[in-house]
């Protein structure tokens, strides 16, 4: 039986059916992570169509009036600690007689979180919680229901599903290994990240990984899939192992009719591709330039004022609700979004123009055709035609939001910086082939000048808009440190000394750049813990930058354990320039090789004993090990995020190398370059927030 990808892109929507069947006449309280998953699966319209009376934030400051007796809570977390407190607060301030609670965490994980290791019949944790709900409502005869629904997936496109609930799950780095080792006796310390197993991780991270494995299992269960798991990287090994050994997965694999392969890949093995500006993708730029929707990791705010006749004032953005990129209602907008996501920048912009021209012609609006380069002014002039007709606005609202997002990005004052970063990355790539690492790193020093300063080249230009600010400098540092191993080798002791001295200079220079900023970017606010530049002391900025360098130093070692896929760099051969070689491209080329060669770095993870038996037999008879290309459907799960330009790359390689294979991408999030510094320097990777 052929399994088609729509089964999978429909699964996230189908996971909501259980919730939708309970929301009639209810006020729904939902946490941000579940709200983001719903946003890409039909949005609030789906709830209202199912009969919900209202949707409110999951917060202790919300409640309902006397004439609202029914509530449905949808949370992505364990029913423990803070989550329980908020549910209790809302119920205590309201007058409910009927409460339904949905959690994205399965009952088996609730048992683990309560230190119950025995197999239990039924759902005792959920039943106990139902009694508590009745207690809080004030009458044991009122109705309470508690159940699990795997509402963690967001179908961003036909090819990509992300998991907002796990957006901050990120592969561990050397400082995390040190932190784990510091709590262990000397003889039981780990030498390398690859040696870690699930049980050596902190409790919160174990729970997070078990929840992710259970969610994937639910997806494979619902689509009747029997998967073979493979892993590249330490965190991927732990997740793939957890999925392979999932108690329900073993039974499913005996009977499921559809075969698929899933390869988990750690983002940390290739950070160059995640912080680089070489992607040539329109969506990557939109995600970077426009502000995120409040509470969302992926989607952004699109200013809709241009479609109204309101005057632009500094408060006018509060008058009209923002638009966004997720357009699940309109087929035309959906196909435009798919094109923007997986085509090159220029093609994406041309597609926008084509869709706007088609929509205007359909509505008989007086459009002036123009060929040649697409400009933001031209796009806006097309979109303003729709203002004259409410019907036209309503019919094409989805396409117009994507058009506005594009125009606002193209004319954004920070756009020149994107090209400045790209030019500098190209220079650094060439320099790596000819020089040692400190010599290449030294090239960043002249850039580390406070913006708009006396010696700034841009003092005469437009306030240094194309000048690199602190955010861009941090991205360039990550870019370069992730490639440090590719530089020309030199005498180690000499390099160590030179590098230490240079790093001290860079730390000092970057600290100065940060404290001279008149406004702190969202990234700097997170790194320094300060919202206002006036509060930011030199000491605070200096220690934040020092901590950043502790993490940077380990980035060049993330591929040390690999045997074959050790490099993401191709040196210049005199004819061609040095280039970046994406790890994903190398993995897929390995997988699709016609001779099915076994790659030592793509490790097959299977459920325990049978695999050991196979290995034993293989001494006497030929037993072929599973290979990722054996199955017609291939999943790539990127732990730590995927970029829009990688989506295009995957699509192109699959089409060229093995046309019959369907490749579906799962990822913790869709990345913009500035997400990476936040995940590296400002995320509690060992102790994720599990709501406790």
TrEMBL record:
Species of the source: Salarias fasciatus
GN (gene name): scfd2
The keyword Protein transport is assigned to this record: yes
Entry keywords, A to Z: Protein transport, Transport
Pfam families in the cross-refs: Sec1 (PF00995)
Superkingdom per UniProt: Eukaryota
Family, similarity comment: Belongs to the STXBP/unc-18/SEC1 family.
Gene Ontology BP, a term: vesicle-mediated transport
Protein name listed in UniProt: Sec1 family domain containing 2
